[in-house]
């Protein structure tokens, strides 16, 4: 009997507080506002810009279908974006199922659009029918203006809900759609559109659609009146604002040339193929090898950039490796008994753009970062394999140059493997042979452990004394590490500094890299606030980007922000991390020497202390007020701080400021590293001259 009571009580406990009344049904676009990350990935900068891509993609799909040839994106004051195209215009007639305008249906209903079937689009980037409605749901304001059927129609919305019915406000001889939206501050905490990011993305899209003109206008800083009523394209207003336009006839050939413009070419002719079939719309691929040790593969499916690759990339790599191996043996460049070239060998120095257009496209997730269509692998593998084999036969000089590049990569890989095996032998990463200069932490939990990479033994000694020994490890570097931008793995591992860092991280490197073995989940670069410190930081970031990219993608890499100044006001001590912060602290209390009305009340004891500080290398300008002497110490290096100061300002998790390193645009980051750390001096000089005004110099 007691046993039965126990079961009854357990059942009552299990069911308690969970009934039909606990089931929440979200209507309309409420699910988008409740869980925006499901639809745009994040509410940070990536998700914010994804709103622009979603609206632009609708215009781009009109151009892909041959219905438009002009698309314009404008950044307006007040965080608004305006996208216009001269396509067919969104239908405004009544939808049979919803009994309201098709425009209203598309903008306020999830999974409603012209891309599920019928004759609306043969090929499109959108397939879920959520793009426009998601942007609408996440915008505090949206207005759609449609020109079609001889009329001009508008409808406005706020947070996914219409503010009125579709209205015809006049006649029009034009065709097209204008969308204006303003992201909701309740969803996006920091609304800041980046003009350069939008330009880079839309330039890329212009390469992919032949005959499509794309314009970008930044009118955010324009101070005059902006009234765009009555104009279709914003540029008709002739306002003097930054703008760029793109139109490319060369397609993917032009895109490969653009990516390789600062590179030393291995062969002259760019491989290019476009193949169409009844089973799919088209496969388009262009590639060229350059004198580099990294590769750049840029894949698209229905003109959507797939940052994580997918089945089309797998098919491409398979065909590339097989075709080059067959060519090498057929041409007698290698013997049948020789080892096959691997994917790493044939990818080294490759720049390739892959674009596939298929009717039933499948992506992994709404952000479409990875193509999941199974058939795409075979389609690309077959089309590219046949075309590349013919290219090698018809262009013997290019083929010979490519073969030489691959053979060099093969030999370098073998040499690098031997060097790596000698350094990262079994047991070397298990705590047995950690670098002697590493002051490891006591904790063996990677989740709570931190590695500070500091500049020089002086800073290293101070950091060791000031740290939390339980969770913080210190690795001092001796001077500047090797620039690995053009260095192979064997040369890298011959560097004692880099070898120490690899062993300390615990992940190994190259094809044996395992992020699961990372010994510290925070890698913190702490260098001095001078030119040498900035150079060392850049060298470290180059190393991490090229060989430890998963650490950056996983959010494990940080840059410490030590204070620039220590300010003493009587017995009070303040630390400032910028010139503006210093000026604010000083400005409230002090008058700089030379100002009218300032009186010198420095005592003999003050002068002795001042002389002592000057002897110790402290830059201490004489700053006075009527009743209080203020001294300012400018920190040039971490070694100038004592252990207590370093802990309080830079290492204490409760007070410090860390900047997390992230890659927003991998292609742009790759290009920038090539320019700044590569061997092309003219390109680097041009880059520095073009961007010098944006540099924050501390001289």
Automatic annotation (TrEMBL):
Catalytic activity: ATP-dependent breakage, passage and rejoining of double-stranded DNA
Entry-linked PANTHER family: DNA GYRASE SUBUNIT B, MITOCHONDRIAL, DNA GYRASE/TOPOISOMERASE SUBUNIT B
Taxonomic superkingdom: Bacteria
Keywords, in A-Z order: ATP-binding, DNA-binding, Isomerase, Magnesium, Metal-binding, Nucleotide-binding, Topoisomerase
Segments of this protein annotated with the region Disordered: 595-620
Toprim domain residues: 449-563
Family: Belongs to the type II topoisomerase GyrB family.
Enzyme Commission number, as recorded: 5.6.2.2
Entry's Gene Ontology BP terms: DNA topological change
GO MF annotation: an example: metal ion binding
Protein name: DNA topoisomerase (ATP-hydrolyzing)
InterPro entries: DNA_gyrase_B_C, HATPase_C_sf, HATPase_dom, Ribosomal_Su5_D2-typ_SF, Ribsml_uS5_D2-typ_fold_subgr, Topo_IIA, Topo_IIA-like_dom_sf, Topo_IIA_B
Pfam families: DNA_gyraseB, DNA_gyraseB_C, HATPase_c, Toprim
PROSITE patterns assigned to the protein according to its UniProt record, in alphabetical order: TOPOISOMERASE_II (PS00177), TOPRIM (PS50880)
